[in-house]
Model the fold of this input.
Amino acid sequence: MKPDSTDIPAVDPALSDLENVPGFPGSRADEFPEGASEFTDEVSRRRFLALMGASAALATGVGCNLRPASQRKIVPYTTQPDEITPGVPLFFATAANLGGYGSGVLVRSHEGRPVKVEGNIDHPSSLGGASIHSLASILDIYDPDRSATCTRRGEPVTYESAIAELRKQLYNTPEDPKKNLRLRIVTETVTSPTLSSQIQKLLNLFPNARWVQFDLAGRDNVLEGTRLASGNRHNISYDFTKADVVLSIDSDFLCIGPGHVRYARDFASRRKVRQNSKDGGPADEMNRLYVVECMPTNTGAIADHRLPMLTGLMELFVRELAVTLGIQVTSWANQPQLGSANEWIKPLADDLKAKAGKSIVVAGDHLPPVIHAIVFAINDKLGNFGQTVHLSAPIEARPEGKVTDLKTLTTEMASKSVDALIILGGANPAYSAPADVPFAENIKNVPFTFHLGQHQDETGVLCEWHVPEAHFLEAWGDIRAHDGTATIQQPLIAPLHGGKSAIEVLAAVMSEPVREGLEIVRAFWQNTDEVKKLFPSFEKPATFEIFWQESVRKGVVTRTTPAVKDAKDDKDEKKKDEKKDEKKNEKSLLAPNWTTDLKATLRGELAANEYEVNFRLDPALYDGRFANNGWLQELPKPLTKISWDNAAFVSPKTAREKFAAKTDYSWTAGEHGRAAVNVLELRVNIGGTDRIIKAPIWILPGHADGAVTIHLGGGRTRAGRVAHTPDEPNAEGKPYRGFNAYAIRSSDEPWFTRNVKAVKIGGAALGSGQQYFLACTQGYWQMAEKDPLTGKLLDRAPVRRATLAEFQKVPEFAKIPPAAVGETDLINENVPHPVKHGEPVPSAHKKDDHKHDHGHNGNGHGHDKRLHPLNMYNPAEGLVPDLPDGQRRRWAMAIDLTACTGCSACVIACQGENNIPVVGKTQVTKAREMYWISIDRYYDFQNGLPPEEQEAEAIKTYFQPRMCVQCENAPCEVVCPVGATVHSADGLNDMTYNRCVGTRYCSNNCPYKVRRFNFLTYQDWHTETYKLGRNPDVSVRSRGVMEKCTFCVQRIRGAEIVAEREFRPIRDGEILTACQSACPSNAIIFGDINDPDAGVSRWKNEPTNYGLLAELNTRPRLTHMAVLKNPNPAMPKPK
Amino acid sequence: MPQIFPKAINPIAKMLVLGFPLLAGLTGVTGAAFYRSSYATGVDETPPQPVAFSHAHHVGQLGIHCVYCHTSVETSGFANVPPTKTCMNCHQQIWQGADLLEPVRESYKTDKPIEWNRVHNLPHYAYFNHSIHVNKGVGCVSCHGRLDQMNLTGQASTLLMEWCIACHREPEKHLRPKEEIFNMTWTPAQKTIDPKDGQPYPTNQKELGLLLKERYRVRDAVTLTNCSMCHR
Done:
């Protein structure tokens, strides 16, 4: 197999050359990367002394306690709460906040400690899935760097004195507010009904006060676009279950933004091609996705057609498309050329027209309002409103001004016309303000500044007063989902550091009678009139207490989903109001003359020496708020697979032609995971001054040529210990994680700019001087194998793929292993099959047959002498001859690669569930990362060219989650000298940590490369707060121990115990592994293949199901389902 | 070439050849003996407790049921140590002034839990679950010994892995009717009545064990000795 390739042709001309490339897997004799197996750190004098001291202590017996356990304590409750049974976890529904929008979650609590986040199946933004951010938010509550005390200029004070001082500033006497006070309240996007009503109350008390909203990732452009098109601001949500054709204009709707978890689930439900009628059956038509984007995203990767395009061309593209669809928008002024994209317009428009009413056009939140307005018109023209695209009243309390407000505020501060500034709820403008908005410099002009935040961050440290904020798992609150549904947020734990929520602070400031978070939220929802203003369909509950309990329990407040605006309703309204749009299309939602305000904002092709710089939210760190979250910092970013850094992404062609960059560094860092890269210097002119940043350059196939994309969120100066790196300075030489891209981002052009003065490789060429190294996990742990005779790499085709048409012609295409085509049947016999209906559960124990070489159905290979079982485990019987049916189980998993978006939610879910440590950047660059799931990214090798030589539009990306496949013939087991990894009767490949002595033979013998070794003590055993967050059902591993995916054996055994106690079999779906339950697109299924009706059995019976490396006779219990694409034959072929 | 060692070394070398395996064997035996010794396993040890609670008094003499205090034993992996409130249920009424109970009253007043010393110490990588054992016919006394005769609570079993495994290999040797789980003095010879048919159970442990193993669907020895049954 070759890296990043799934090419089917057996012989690839490009390959023979690649073997000599240093660092290319297969060109090395060692299985392990260099340095991975030895302790190469220099022994310092201090460390030497420490080691010697420790050994001396051990030798004298001082440090040695034979019976350490005997000092343990049992601490019971004094009064045990009714709902708690010690040892049995509880789940609570709440909602995680990101960008002001809530995503429903269920949080597991062990004796009062929140430990694991899962999706809430009742919540419209989740439907059971979860995003990496809500999953990782559990680590934030245990962040040891959270602020723990109220301070005034850094000196500790009490909360009461802080509030008293705040009141003194705001009021003359306790009842008399200072009417003329020029108060400014800074928040992020607010959808919380309670918080917005409180802010409104405060604004009413102080007529000169103003509410400044600052959220750089806000949805203002979308709302403004709807206003341009229809005259009113609308919230847009989509129903992908009904969409046959989807066009995304630079929108990563499957992986980022409000509601993306829901969208991924809905979208994937239309992508899974199934023969079994229970799963939809062949009648269920597969949808089709077109993506036009600049920076490759996960949505683009799973698209059927992907067109890389400069952001500056997108408006032109959208206008052309609109004109082709018959919408009268003014065409472009001086008609620049779209180039090859022109060929897209006609077939795309035809496809959209053919599916009118069953299509969706969606544009990225960051695109300018004009594009959103035209996209609105396209959806309107296609009759999608009310069908697949839903409009409702805006959900945000203030749907505008998220960047301009701050600009005005800064001007006011500069002219000293602000008296008091209150910053609430995590807004961090001192870090993330645009470069031309000198917020941090001007804050000193405000006489009174008050900050509420979880950290004393860049903004907090500039403020006079600071109060620690409660995490959302510590406080009561409410929040709205992407479609407007409200959730009551409930705390799982009392604030660890005495934090307060924004609503509590505001209540205290206004000296309201109720000051407790719970009481404030309850009071709001009890006031039916107030609630009805926001939620017209809300009805006064008969008994408030029942309504309240039910809302809190479920995590969703009923009757709060806003009515969806249909084209027809609107027409009626308009007819009533005014009769002037009679001439227009009957069902149109468009305002009359909507095109007059549309000013072209984007430009055309790049000039010869012009550059385009795009700014995007970091897929893991978002806008930088997760910078101190080790899980998200280390997470190999979806698609780019870079860990611990942000980078400047360019296409291979641009790197070659524009920067004459050397290509030693590229889309993969080889098996070391370490890539030495050049540093790119970007000089952008903002407001007359040149601003410079230095960013490591990363070549990403598929990126639009001529543009540079940089991720925001790096270079936090006051995030905490994770983001502070004196030993590993960033590309600018500063001791922070990543570089700060905000330094070249202006408020006028927040998402892309062409105002770039110069882009050049900073300093000397690669190899001397200006060099930086990035950690990238793609290229690790390759499943590579050389043919012993020819020396060529064998192509194992790990990701098998076809178009829908090809699949219909040869449904079983995925079952053909290219390395051994002639033995297809034999190999497929060797993939564990689910039991068929009517067939007895395999149990016959043939006393006379001790060779254990028969599969349970079809003994085809039983006579083949080449296939020898590698262990004592007989897969057909589960080792146990005569068990009652309910107890004879064969656990298995299937992963649908068509549905997988590579979003990495499973990786974070697994990390949280299984206490997987964070290892740090240096360790990642030694191929020592510990994630049990790695999501491999593969590129197509078309025309035999490696990715860096392909045209951007020809790049096809595939994802494959890879974890332990629980082989029935496990190669790891036979080589373990101490029996630390052995089989269980139900077919799990058990890993027994306490037996492991760390020989690593198992990992050497694992063809899937899924075993992870604790080379050092990676687990943080000392930080008190982290201890609270560990899952008590899973051992915390220490140094010298091998570990790997267990199929969440703690959940299996837990469910088994419950079922056995109740004398019943385990129900299908009763056990969800952590990855399965988190997966937004439902791509993972787990269960018992001895149950013919189980979901996993149905999936495994599909023709697309295949065993990864099954030709090695491993009998993998985890199988993958091939990728299917549904391309439009009328579309132009990529060059 | 001259000999490196003089001839006189020979007897010493012979003794070494003979002695080394002996020494190694002795070390092994000593090690194994130490590992199983009551010092290392803590068997029969009664750690001091903040309150001199006597199971002999409460269970043996007063006959209070195990589950009155250890409420979660049938539903959770962890058999809870009772909260202070449970003690106070009775001790608000009786022995209100006893000096012995001062820590209990103090805990109740100040809402600070009593910190008991753990008697049964399992390693952190072994996940024992009380509920499944109690529900499948393993009595308290089988592991915890005659608590009704213990003043301060002591450890009755070695808690070594071989001790666990011995029962997991042959559970029938230790199974008893579920009605008798909490009975400290039950033996198969008692002719307990089977509620199913009103007839007495077999009085032979082996016969009874096999019957109950079938009835309670206790799993086979292979499954019960899977590593992941206890180590996760």
